[in-house]
Amino acid sequence: MRGRKAMIGMIGLGLLIGVGAGFLLGRYVWPVRYIDVAPTELHPDWQAEYVRMVALAYARDSDLALARARLALLGDPLVVLQQLPSRSPAPLSPEARAAIADLIRALGSSPASSGGSP
Q1: Alpha carbon separation from 4 to 7, 15, 17, 18 (Å, rounded)
Q2: Which of 40, 45, 75, 117 could form a disulfide with 89 if both were Cys (CB 3.0 to 4.6 A apart)?
Q3: Which residues of 6-31 are buried (b: 16+ CB within 10 A; e: fewer)?
Q4: Same domain for 58 and 96?
Q5: DSSP labels for the chain?
Q6: 76-96 burial string, b = 16+ CB within 10 Å, else e?
Q7: What CA–CA distance (Å, rounded) separates 95 from 9?
Q8: Do 52 and 107 fall into the same domain?
Q9: Are residues 16 and 71 in the same domain?
Q10: pLDDT for 9-53, tens place per residue?
Q11: How many domains would you assign to the chain?
């Protein structure tokens, strides 16, 4: 009987050590790294950050076609931009708000937005 308890204790200790070592290795030594993740696979907070960065990039380079293509990865570009203030986890800076408003105006006035994108 004593030998059986010792065996169960050793198995339990081995499992505990194995799980602990696996956690430490997976968390700190070889953590998972995500590369080239599609915007639709991001957490909603990071999707909002992506949309903010697209608007700021548009404010910098005025490339409407590129901004539309980037936002289309998340759905209808106008809807995505209009929902941003409610989806953003942090308050938007005045610069970001202005960039978003400019991009909404540009998308709303461009001919491709009324005809539907491919």
Answers
A1: 5, 17, 20, 21
A2: 45
A3: eeeeeeeeeeeeeeeeeeeeeeeeee
A4: yes
A5: -HHHHHHHHHHHHHHHHHHHHHHHIIIIIS-----S--GGGS-HHHHHHHHHHHHHHHHHH--HHHHHHHHHTTS-HHHHHHHHHHH-SSPPPHHHHHHHHHHHHHHHHSHHHHH---
A6: ebeebbebbeeebeeebeeeb
A7: 62
A8: yes
A9: no
A10: 999 999 999 999 999 999 999 998 888 889 999 888 889 999 999
A11: 2
Domain that holds residue 104: 39-115
pTM of the model: 0.66
Do 60 and 94 fall within a single domain?
A: yes
Amino acid at 56: L
